[in-house]
Amino acid sequence: xxxxxxxxxxxxxxxxxxxxxxxxxxxxxxxxxxxxxxxxxxxxxxxxxxxxxxxxxxxxxxxxxxxxxxxxxxxxxxxxxxxxxxxxxxxxxxxxxxxxxxxxxxxxxxxxxxxxxxxxxxxxxxxxxxxxxxxxxxxxxxxxxxxxxxxxxxxxxxxxxxxxxxxxxxxxxxxxxxxxxxxxxxxxxxxxxxxxx
Length: 197
Ligand code: HEM
What we know:
9 helices, mainly alpha
């Protein structure tokens, strides 16, 4: 219910005439910002779980990730439907003028296989290792989302910097954790026995 609150609030503001003179832009921006927020929240679960040892957090990861996809779908639909009225020619003309849309589109498309394979059945069918590798696509989506956000503004403000820093920190955490794991593995490996003479 909490994850639906941004949508309910947006609908409430829309119905009560509380949006700006350009409501379509408001809806695009609001759904876009919530997509990036949910992507960051999804990426934050694993580091939080490792630091706090609250392993139960994992149960929220799939739902939060699916909400990122849900808000991404609303954002995409707002652009295609409310902004461009399914006018594919206008869209093709718009993209070279605003190339950041292409990056947003690529980031969104990469989320589709993640959403499709999010069920227990798909995890079993793919096997844990392959599922893990596939779900690393979220890293590319997160970087793409930050590029999309930075590229679309004329002047970069603290908002874009905050999201880009969060994504960089969450990805760096994973890299450092992996390196730590590898070095621990090396130090705990039993010393090789000298060859018998
Ligand atoms: C992972 C996918 C995506 C993320 C995270 C994302 C994120 C964002 C964010 C944060 C904003 C700005 C919000 C603000 O200023 O408050 C935005 C704006 C926008 N996005 Fe996306 N977006 C994504 C995908 C897409 C896609 C698929 C399209 C269209 C095909 C798109 C088109 C736009 C447009 C047209 C704007 C408004 C730009 C303007 O104000 O002129 N985005 N997006």
